[in-house]
Amino acid sequence: MKLLEERIKQDGRVIGTEVLKVDNFLNHQVDPALMEAMGQEFARLFKDEKIDRILTVESSGIAPAVFTALALNVPMVFARKKQSLTLTDDNYVADVYSFTKQETNHIIVDKRFIQAGERILLIDDFLANGQAVQGMLEIAKAAQAEVVGAGIVIEKTFQKGRALLNEQGLKVESLARIQAFEDGKVIFAEA
Ligand code: 5GP
């Protein structure tokens, strides 16, 4: 998605060789017009699928997920993150190791907000090693829902997330694909 690539070039900040900060349009301050365009693009990419619900993880997945849900006219639910929790039977829970924070969190979805048999589209801001999407897949499986694919805002192709998800037959669509960070610059993968 050209608009997003341009914005990454303009406002993204490369940290070391593996991390991109996009906190002035996605991860802290949010650009609603860009989010709306991304939501429409995800809706276009998954237009052939019947989708009942969007699932994402708080907090940075919420903005693109809301606009995707709006474009598809379906509900959106975000998994909450908790470091410790009292397990109850009311929730689906999965462990997610965070690549950026280097800690394991639980992600939790109330059982009322995913129904068995629903077709679910996963949305997230970044795909790195695939742990966040894997956690959402586990939750969907526990809920006996079917995942139709994952829509990712920014995929880093030099990390192993896509391979992990493709091995499981998951369709993954990314709006921007980054091949490397070199000398503080973003190198995009060829389309
Ligand atoms: P994964 O679970 O695929 O290893 O990592 C994805 C999650 O880690 C995303 O939900 C995102 O919050 C965070 N993340 C991974 N890489 C980056 C990055 O380069 N920049 C930012 N801002 N977050 C990232």
TrEMBL record:
Q: Where in the cell is it found?
A: Cytoplasm
Keyword ATP-binding in annotation: no
Phosphoribosyltransferase domain location is 33-156
SUPFAM superfamilies registered for this protein in UniProt:
PRTase-like
The answer to whether UniProt assigns keyword Cytoplasm to this entry is yes
Residue positions annotated to bind xanthine are 20, 27, 156
Q: Which GO molecular function entries does the Swiss-Prot or TrEMBL record give? A: xanthine phosphoribosyltransferase activity
E.C. numbers: 2.4.2.22
Highest taxon of the lineage: Bacteria
The record's Gene Ontology cellular component field reads: cytoplasm
Instruction: Give the matching InterPro entries.
Output: PRTase-like, PRTase_dom, Pur/Pyrimidine_PRTase, Xanthine_PRibTrfase
The record ties this protein, via PANTHER family, to:
HYPOXANTHINE/GUANINE PHOSPHORIBOSYLTRANSFERASE, XANTHINE PHOSPHORIBOSYLTRANSFERASE
- Full protein name: Xanthine phosphoribosyltransferase
- Supply the source organism for this entry: Weissella koreensis
